[in-house]
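Help needed: design a sequence for this.
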């Protein structure tokens, strides 16, 4: 069984690659078998880390998922049981990848083979708060109930408050409350 950590958020510049790098560093430091996959079509930040075993996969062909490359990514995941797999995905591929995963029953395929998928997403304060909350809402709405989420709270751009409510008091948190791992959420 592999544990797949997919970093997804529709807003750029909020810390997706940083989260992917932190996860990679954590697993690498534990000497856990690790595979990192960089699918960001614009900023291949994770690929630039020489300390991690990173594979670059060009998932996007213009605005569509390249099916052959997606299959290649799935083969890497399915062919490496017992690994921690960290996937960094860019903002421009957020909607196509999310939709493709769901429409093609990729999550079910991974589960059938004993792999566990966790979606890591980032909520940031300041001007991007609304966009990142909207991105999380889209993920919660699209993905099946059993998908686990880890939400990283990034207060670099400001407090994460909306109408005086903290993240844990927001409707988007309460919608999926049972599937968050409050011990795993971290400030970046």
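Sure. Designed sequence:
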């Amino acid at each position: 069984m592999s544990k797949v950590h997919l970093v997804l958020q529709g807003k750029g510049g909020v810390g997706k690659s940083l989260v992917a790098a932190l996860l990679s560093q954590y697993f690498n430091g534990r000497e856990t078998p690790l595979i990192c996959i960089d699918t960001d079509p614009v900023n291949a930040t994770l690929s630039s880390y020489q300390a991690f075993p990173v594979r670059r996969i060009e998932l996007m062909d213009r605005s569509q998922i390249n099916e052959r490359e997606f299959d290649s990514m799935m083969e890497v995941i399915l062919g490496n049981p017992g690994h921690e797999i960290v996937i960094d995905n860019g903002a421009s591929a957020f909607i196509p990848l999310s939709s493709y995963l769901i429409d093609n029953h990729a999550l079910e395929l991974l589960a059938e083979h004993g792999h566990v998928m966790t979606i890591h997403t980032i909520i940031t304060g300041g001007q991007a708060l609304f966009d990142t909350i909207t991105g999380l809402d889209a993920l919660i709405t699209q993905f099946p109930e059993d998908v686990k989420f880890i939400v990283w709270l990034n207060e670099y751009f400001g407090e994460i408050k909306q109408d005086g409510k903290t993240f844990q008091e927001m409707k988007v948190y309460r919608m999926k409350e049972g599937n968050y791992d409050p011990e795993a959420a971290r400030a970046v």
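DSSP finds six helices and ten strands in the chain.
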